[in-house]
Specification:
The chain has 170 residues and is an alpha/beta fold. Helices cover 29% and strands 16% of the residues. The mean pLDDT is 93.
């Protein structure tokens, strides 16, 4: 699926079926065999093969490991509790949509791209959202303080509560 579209799905601007990169026929027509739901459990570099959980052994010429990412751990007590989650994949997005239908408030930790996309998506689903960001300004790796101030003003006008220079504590 198209990971970039997860923010649009969360915001209710896209349907889940629109995330599919290609139709199954396209893969067959182009000689691509897709194995879904069968994780790789071993890589044998000497034989240039990968083994999957179902026991499939697949040879390769070139191996690309594209496994995505996980949210950074904050090292806080309670971050493994139910209701505390990341926003990285389709499963996370489904959980956030479900939670937005049952709850009214959310706190998003991080004022980078993903954090702001999650905050805006939850806000558009009717939640009151507060963003906590430890830096002095949003998107601090991409924007200077002046540009960030304009962004913060716009997001605040849309209904997000922004708290910079703020980190969560257990």
């Amino acid at each position: 699926y198209n990971r970039i579209q997860l923010s649009s799905l969360l915001a209710g601007e896209a349907r889940e079926d629109s995330l599919q990169l290609q139709q199954p026929d396209w893969y067959r027509q182009h000689g691509v065999t897709v194995h879904q739901g069968d994780p790789v459990t071993a890589i044998n570099r000497a034989d240039q093969t990968v083994c999957t959980a179902s026991g499939l052994t697949q040879p390769y010429t070139q191996l690309v490991i594209a496994t995505g990412s996980r949210s950074a751990s904050l090292g806080l007590e309670g971050e493994a509790l139910d209701g505390v989650m990341g926003f990285r994949d389709l499963q996370d997005t489904r959980r956030l949509i479900s939670i937005s239908q049952r709850h009214r408030r959310a706190v998003v930790i991080g004022g980078g791209f993903l954090g702001l996309e999650a905050a805006e998506g939850l806000r558009s689903r009717g939640m009151a959202v507060t963003v906590l960001h430890r830096s002095g300004h949003l998107l601090n790796r991409q924007l200077d303080p002046a540009g960030s101030a304009l962004l913060e003003e716009s997001l605040t006008e849309r209904g997000l509560a922004i708290r910079t220079r703020t980190s969560p504590v257990a």
